[in-house]
């Protein structure tokens, strides 16, 4: 093995300056078609979200009675000024989709931070300390599992009577923590049986140090993978709440709310519902693809892959 | 088996207690139950009088124990909107929901099993790619959006099925398909990966080497064993199926528990909301229990103690 290393070093030295190679993650991204698609979609949506005021051609809430329900530009009767058409109030649908990306991404990412924090905390406590604490936390996750997440979120949003962005982040976050708690708990349970953790316990390392230094870094990669997919689920949850009229309130724009408006115009103006629906599907698809690629990237069994 | 069952049922008790606590806290602490019971011009004194009359000024734990006692005896108070006992109203809606969710689950299983097996048998073929693609798409689309697309295609464009409502079997088709697509997209990849794993087992090689035809190998030897984890997945799908039916029933104006619940949430009719959540939770828990029992019956290797 050592000899081999030496010879390859010699070969590298002989070849002169090392040929520049792209980092591993970039090479893996290039190789995975779906990963690349996911990466591109998520980048576009993030750019939309961050730079919405510069990208959107119109004020998304500007009411324009003259140009009500215009078909998309590529259709017969379409207007070149409105790329994806207009809705019942003459809002430019493209501008609204661009601004909607902001709400989707904001709520998707922030609620996952909330869920990840609560879930990791409970998962660590349950897995590391076990016993009665574990039993209690696991029964709580069972209870949360028995109530559909959308339902819990709906009731929570309706009783605090408000569809503010903060409310939705907290509610979607709190209803999503059990995935993390169960994942982290099972990872901790298996880590606790590993030699390095047992050794740390034996030499009397404080619990806090073991958790922070030995356990948390080792659950990180599954945490990232689950979080990516959880962003997709949270975006779907937000859109469902907004579709039912219990989510984001105007003037904020949500794709779910746009779909709900479009439902009334299905027979005559299909694009009002279809355009935000496509935006939602593509975004969620992109995040799922990115998550699957991340899973392959962070999987130690794939580390040897060039 | 009997001991395991008793243990499982006993374990459901703390879970149910936690659920009642969550529901109670949501309604009585996060929100104010008197908000919609009083006219808009009610004074603070009126509000206090009503709170006193409803017992809302008592300590929280007393109120919770009271709520628990009522829940055990099935008394959740009246719906303030319909002036009828909330439990009766909710129970009336169950048959329609069961009809919809049952049809959807059946449809999902009938779709998912052959598609999952075929895509495992012909892994990486165009057929497999198409099936995987559709199931990924199914997971990426919220079910109200699937429902809208189905309405656009079958009710608006082709005009072969009704847009919404209930009454005839034709009304059942679109909502059931919407829910089935959602469930099948979750089940297909699982059957596929189970089948792929099983096809490499020794006993499959034995079956092949003794000259069985491929169809026989797949149907008799592999499928039976691939089915075991599917039971769990189907059971795990039940909460999301119920959650999905909340929205699907609203989209298609299907008169089930989901639509009723959404209306109650919009009207802040909290006694109805409480009953519905508890009903749904109990249905889910019982479904999971049944799945565990079936799991045990079809797989002789599993013996719970």
Total separate domains of chain A: 1
Reading the helices and strands of chain A in chain order gives HHHHHHHHHHHHH
End-to-end CA span of chain B: 7 Å
- Architecture of chain A, CATH level 2? Orthogonal Bundle
Furnish the topology, listing elements before pairings.
The complex is a heterodimer of chains A (306) and B (305).
Chain A: H1 2-14, H2 24-31, H3 33-50, H4 52-55, H5 93-129, H6 131-146, H7 149-159, H8 165-174, H9 177-192, H10 195-202, H11 207-243, H12 255-263, H13 271-298
Helix pairs in contact in A: 2-3, 3-5, 3-13, 5-6, 5-8, 5-9, 5-11, 7-8, 9-11, 10-11, 11-12, 11-13, 12-13
Chain B: H1 2-30, H2 44-54, H3 60-72, H4 86-121, H5 126-140, H6 143-157, H7 169-198, H8 202-209, H9 214-251, H10 257-266, H11 270-298
Please give a structural write-up:
- Chain A has 306 residues and is mostly helical.
- Chain A has one domain (38-302): MetI-like fold (Orthogonal Bundle), CATH 1.10.3720.10.
- Chain A is 70% helix and 0% strand.
- In chain A, helix 11 packs parallel to helix 12 (255-263).
- The radius of gyration of chain A is 24 Å and the shape is globular.
- Mean pLDDT of chain A is 83; it is low at 1-6.
- Chain B has a domain at 86-298: MetI-like (MetI-like fold).
Name the descriptors.
heterodimer, A: 306 residues, mainly alpha, MetI-like fold, 70% helix, disordered N terminus, B: 305 residues, 77% helix, 0% strand, globular
In short:
Helix content of chain A is 70%, strand content 0%.
């Amino acid at each position: 093995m050592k000899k081999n290393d030496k010879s390859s070093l010699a070969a590298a030295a002989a070849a002169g300056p090392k040929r520049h190679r792209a980092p591993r993650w970039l090479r893996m991204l290039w190789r995975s078609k779906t990963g690349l698609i996911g990466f591109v979609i998520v980048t576009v949506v993030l750019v939309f979200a961050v730079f919405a005021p510069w990208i959107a051609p119109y004020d998304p809430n500007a009411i324009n009675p003259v140009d009500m329900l215009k078909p998309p530009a590529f259709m017969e009767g379409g207007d070149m000024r409105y790329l994806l058409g207009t809705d019942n109030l003459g809002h430019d649908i493209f501008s609204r989709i661009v601004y909607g990306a902001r709400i989707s991404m904001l709520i998707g990412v922030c609620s996952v931070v909330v869920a990840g924090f609560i879930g990791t905390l409970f998962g660590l406590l349950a897995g590391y300390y076990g016993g009665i604490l574990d039993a209690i936390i696991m029964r709580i996750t069972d209870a949360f599992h028995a109530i559909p997440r959308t339902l819990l979120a709906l009731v929570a949003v309706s009783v605090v009577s408000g569809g503010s962005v903060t409310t939705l982040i907290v509610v979607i976050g709190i209803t999503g923590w059990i995935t993390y708690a169960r994942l982290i708990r099972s990872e901790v349970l298996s880590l606790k049986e590993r030699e390095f953790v047992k050794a740390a316990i034996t030499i009397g390392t404080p619990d806090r140090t073991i958790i922070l230094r030995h356990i948390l870094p080792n659950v990180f990669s599954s945490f990232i993978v689950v979080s990516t997919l959880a962003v997709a689920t949270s975006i779907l949850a937000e859109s469902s709440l907004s579709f039912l009229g219990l989510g984001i309130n105007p003037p904020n724009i949500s794709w779910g709310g746009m779909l709900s408006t479009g439902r009334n115009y299905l027979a005559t103006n299909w694009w009002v519902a279809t355009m935000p629906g496509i935006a939602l599907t593509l975004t969620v698809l992109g995040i799922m693809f990115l998550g699957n690629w991340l899973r392959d990237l962070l999987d130690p069994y794939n580390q040897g892959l060039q | 088996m009997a001991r395991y069952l008793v243990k499982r049922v006993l374990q459901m008790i703390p879970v149910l207690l936690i659920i009642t606590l969550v529901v109670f806290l949501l309604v009585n602490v996060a929100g104010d139950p008197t908000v919609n019971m009083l006219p808009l011009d009610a004074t603070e004194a009126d509000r206090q009088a009503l709170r006193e009359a409803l017992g809302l000024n008592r300590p929280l734990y007393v109120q919770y124990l009271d709520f628990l006692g009522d829940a055990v005896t099935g008394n959740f108070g009246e719906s303030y909107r319909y002036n009828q006992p909330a439990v009766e109203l909710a129970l009336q809606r169950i048959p329609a929901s069961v009809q919809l969710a049952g049809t959807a689950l059946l449809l999902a299983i009938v779709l998912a099993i052959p598609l999952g097996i075929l895509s495992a048998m012909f892994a990486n073929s165009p057929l497999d790619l198409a099936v995987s693609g559709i199931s990924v798409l199914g997971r990426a689309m919220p079910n109200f959006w699937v429902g809208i697309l189905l309405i656009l295609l079958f009710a608006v464009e082709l005009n072969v099925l009704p847009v919404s409502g209930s009454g005839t079997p034709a009304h059942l088709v679109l909502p059931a398909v919407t829910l089935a697509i959602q469930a099948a997209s979750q089940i297909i990849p699982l059957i596929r990966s189970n089948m792929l794993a099983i096809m490499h087992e020794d006993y499959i090689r034995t079956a092949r080497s003794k000259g069985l035809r491929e169809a026989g190998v797949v149907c008799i030897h592999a499928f039976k064993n691939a089915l075991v984890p599917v039971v769990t997945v189907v059971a795990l799908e039940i909460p999301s199926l119920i959650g999905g039916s909340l929205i699907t029933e609203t989209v298609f104006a299907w008169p089930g528990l989901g639509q009723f619940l959404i209306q109650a949430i919009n009207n802040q009719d909290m006694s109805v909301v409480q009953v519905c959540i508890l009903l749904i939770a109990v249905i889910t828990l019982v479904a999971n229990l049944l799945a565990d029992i079936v799991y045990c019956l079809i797989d002789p290797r599993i013996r719970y103690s």
